[in-house]
Amino acid sequence: MTEKQPPLRSPVDMKLASLKDLVKLVISSVGPDRAAGYIGHFAEANRSIFFIFNTSLGYFDLNALPIIVWIEDTDKPDKSFIRYKTSPKEEINFSDDASDPKWLSIPIVTFEVLPEFLKVWGKKE
To answer: Does residue 101 have a cis peptide bond before it, meaning omega lies within 30 degrees of 0?
Structure first.
């Protein structure tokens, strides 16, 4: 006899102001000389959601607190990477080239399907 599992709770969500803010968060959390993980993308209706999934380990009585940091945009990425640089001025763009050392490049991973409990952007708006 199997016991019915309770439904999964959605992660905590934090909405940022811009894609540039999300890129800076990813880059700053890993350091300048290491790979920067990825930024997830999910297309829904007439919008694009860019997000990262993280956990805050040892959060009070929880083993880990799942967190989704996200932004909403109208543009769908047509390239494989988001690139960022600060010199001679701060810039961000989409590119298929991740080899230019003047830029910090982060891969974009597009999800075709996401479980409903991860779609935190539709829950509180």
So the answer is: no
